Amino acid sequence: MADAASDEVEAPAGDRPTTLTRDLGETGEALERWLAARRPDVDAVRVSDLVIPATNGMSSETLLFDAVWVEAGTERLEPMVARVAPDPDNVPVFREYDLAGQFEVMHQVALLTSVPVPRVHWLERSPSALGAPFFVMERRHGIVPPDLLPYPFGDNWLFDASRDDQRTLQDSTIAVLAALHAIEQPEARFPFLDLDRPEPTALGRHVGDWEDYYEWIVADGLRSPLIEACLGWLHEHWPTDDSGAVFNWGDARVGNVMYRDFRPIAVLDWEMTAIAPPELDLSYCVYLHRMFEDAASKYGFPGMPHFMTRDVALGEYERLTGHIARDFDWYTFWNATRYGMISARIGRRAARFGEQPIPDDVDDVIMNRDALERMLAGTYWKEV
């Protein structure tokens, strides 16, 4: 893959920033004690093959393990996953980790839709077992498009797939969004997502909540002129059409889906769910691929410019739902700004672990700075 990179620009390293500091031996013992208390009806409960995946997320902690016990004289093995709220001292990405809400979202989505969500087993609200609340769900086996290095850089299963298989994966992912957005009465189904805020619309409340998130990030005094300029532009160009509020996955991208035969078998990562117009998910799904395409172009890799394009993705969504997306560039800019906020927080995490200092120009920590500046200038979509 290195041969494909430009001679002028060095490709980024594939190391994932530090996300946690946890002793696996102690964690395994604690998890085993907790599981035994949860299953007093079985014998010889143990936890084996406990690992932290190399692709562990940037928000909550992920623990993979096998739960083993003897039931009615027969040993059973169940592959499981624990999602653990992060240690506040490790500079978590988000202000709050509503694991109970995530647990309920996954449970309701499984009941209400055909979306393949891992079955949730137990919710532990107390931090006594692992030092933080967590929940346990089934572990499914499939493949995920890589983030490090991003899949458009080449040398991975999705990049090497045929155009037909890539299109199958794209369309089946858009179908996940259509199914989620079809959930009726989302405010009633997910009351904890109906934000108690003064803004009169669901979109306004969603944006206002993220503006509070930005203020939380910059409590250290390092404000971002770029993000604030983006927020100003977004308010000045507020959408004139209101598509209505639906249930949004929030972190809608192919990197949060596990696939088999190019179709989803597990939809993951529900930290960013929201009640908002459907364009929120649609534009995030398109933009997150576009962001990887921007990186591929920057570092001289061929990329996948034919994949998850705006027109094709929106056309497939319209075919499935009848909904014509409105103000799509605005929502794309909003999602790019959200991502900029998150990357600013991740930069502070990197500084906390001594991986890189906060630069003199605080906006240099924003991973999609170039795209945000081009969106502000009105040239972004003209250049792609």
Describe this structure in words.
The chain has 384 residues and is an alpha+beta fold. It folds into two domains: 24-85 and 97-138, Phosphorylase Kinase, domain 1 (2-Layer Sandwich); 151-383, Aminoglycoside 3'-phosphotransferase, Chain: A, domain 2, CATH 3.90.1200.10. Helix content is 39%, strand content 15%. The chain is built from eleven helices and nine strands. It has a five-stranded antiparallel sheet, with helices on both faces. It has a two-stranded antiparallel ribbon with strand order 6-9. Strands 7-8 form a two-stranded antiparallel sheet. Helix 7 packs antiparallel against helix 10 (328-352), helix 7 packs parallel to helix 11 and helix 8 crosses helix 10. The longest helix has 25 residues, at 328-352. The two termini are 24 Å apart. The relative contact order is 0.13.
Largest sheet, in brief, is: 5 strands, antiparallel
Shape: globular
As residue ranges, the low-confidence spans are 1-9
The share of residues in extended strands comes to 5-15%
CATH superfamily of the largest domain: Aminoglycoside phosphotransferase (APH), C-terminal lobe
| CATH-scheme architecture of the largest domain | Alpha-Beta Complex
Count of β-strands = 9
Strand order of the largest sheet: 1-2-3-5-4
